[in-house]
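[Discussion] Sanity-checking designs against the backbone

I'm trying to build intuition for which residues belong where. Below is a structure token string of 451 positions. I'd appreciate it if someone posts a full sequence so I can compare it with mine line by line.
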């Protein structure tokens, strides 16, 4: 594979919406998501009222890349080889001795070589995007509450979390003003959403004018998608995209067979009949990457059009687009925005302070004191040896499945379309694909060990 990647070489440029094209004001959106679940659990399912109150420092628990073991209520952070680097029971972090006794230096019981491990199963749940993270804090506090009040050893609250998702985010929730989340976003979108900078709007038009086919593929429903796009891009946003696919139910959009997930037309935001194939550009719901690619062949007149897809979720966007469809992938990794040298006690970077003055919650993309860096962590050395740094499982997946990783679309919007990015590849260093520069924690001269 070529060492460089360029947008000029792509025929089709696709985007996820939430936390990719549409950036959220995290200190406002995170408490809203948390509240939408907590109120459901307390009012509908009888959980402890303490769940409703969140202190600003509680948000430090949130960190991308954690897995929740649904049986024992433990959260874990994995090394790239599947061993456990840190763990908590609920929000209570485990001491090194407890960690060693419970997990040792063995692979976590659910760990399989990268491809074999789903990110979501009946036994565990990985938190890999900003919609999920407030749920991690809530689930940890639910475990705290059940442990304290009932002395529980096994946990079965997940069915109630799923019911909360269904209540707040079901397909009809936006239209029916159901739950807490959608009514609040509708009431004051400017509080929760950042408009796309002019540089990004100009860049999208530039791609279009260069003859690229532009796609929007989002798991959000069409009515919510329209609200977001109008707010961030303006009323004429639909002119920018050749094909808009809503309720895409990723990662199934990429992994399912066409017969399992046909495209559907939309009428007044209601899904209509299933389509045997995709014949023309437009707005659609659900669908699959195979039928989409057949349409792209027709539209470009090429037997193998080259597609790049931008997304923020390794689980829903990057891994499936690369693994099932062999598309180029650009990971939006906000952790690159606030990256500073790895000192948990360090204060917020200066450029953040003005933006989040008087914040209710710390920005979720800043460093967690409890969990440390998203990218690396230390493994306690054996006697008479130094602690050594290893890559996290999340970091390994970034370099394995992303073509490049960037902090935001804005970071590349003013580059020429033929700019040559150095891609992640086994021939390059593990940090090659980060743009504009690698995280500082990965920039040290000494090599990281793999244990």
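Best answer:
Here's mine. Compare freely.
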């Amino acid at each position: 594979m070529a060492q460089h990647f360029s947008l000029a070489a792509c025929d089709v440029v696709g985007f996820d919406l939430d936390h990719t094209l549409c950036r959220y004001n995290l200190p406002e959106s995170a408490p809203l998501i948390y509240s939408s679940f907590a109120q459901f659990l307390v009012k509908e399912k009888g959980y402890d009222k303490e769940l409703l109150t969140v202190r600003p420092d509680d948000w430090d628990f949130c960190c991308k890349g954690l897995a929740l073991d649904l049986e024992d209520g433990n959260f874990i952070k994995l090394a790239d080889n599947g061993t456990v680097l840190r763990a908590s029971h609920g929000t209570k972090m485990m001491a090194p001795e407890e960690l060693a006794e419970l997990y040792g230096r063995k692979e976590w019981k659910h760990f399989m070589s990268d491809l074999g491990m789903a990110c979501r199963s009946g036994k565990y749940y990985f938190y890999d995007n900003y919609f999920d993270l407030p749920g991690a804090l809530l689930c940890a506090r639910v475990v705290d509450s059940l442990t304290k009040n009932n002395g529980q050893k096994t946990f079965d609250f997940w069915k109630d979390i799923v019911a909360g998702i269904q209540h707040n985010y079901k397909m009809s929730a936006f239209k029916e003003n159901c739950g807490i989340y959608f009514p609040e976003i509708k009431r004051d979108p400017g509080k929760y959403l950042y408009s796309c900078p002019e540089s990004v709007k100009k860049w999208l038009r530039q791609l279009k004018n260069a003859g690229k086919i532009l796609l929007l593929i989002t798991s959000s429903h069409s009515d919510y998608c329209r609200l977001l796009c109008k707010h961030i891009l303006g009323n004429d946003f639909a002119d920018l995209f050749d094909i808009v696919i809503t309720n895409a139910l990723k990662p199934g959009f990429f992994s399912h067979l066409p017969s399992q997930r046909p495209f559907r037309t939309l009428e007044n935001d209601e899904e209509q009949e299933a389509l045997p194939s995709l014949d023309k550009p437009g707005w659609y719901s659900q669908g699959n990457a195979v039928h989409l690619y057949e349409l792209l062949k027709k539209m470009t007149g090429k037997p193998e059009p080259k597609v790049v897809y931008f997304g923020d979720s390794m689980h829903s966007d990057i891994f499936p687009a690369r693994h099932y469809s062999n598309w180029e992938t650009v990971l939006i990794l906000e952790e690159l925005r606030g990256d500073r040298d790895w000192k948990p006690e360090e204060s917020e970077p200066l450029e953040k302070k003005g933006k989040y003055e008087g914040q209710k919650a710390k920005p979720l993309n800043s460093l967690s004191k409890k969990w440390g860096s998203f990218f690396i962590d230390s493994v306690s050395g054996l006697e008479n040896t130094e602690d050594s740094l290893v890559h996290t499982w999340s970091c390994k997946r970034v370099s394995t499945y992303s073509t490049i990783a960037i902090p935001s679309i804005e970071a590349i919007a003013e580059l020429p379309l033929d700019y040559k990015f150095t891609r992640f590849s086994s021939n390059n260093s593990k940090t090659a694909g980060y743009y504009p520069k690698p995280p500082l924690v990965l920039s040290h001269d000494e090599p990281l060990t793999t244990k």
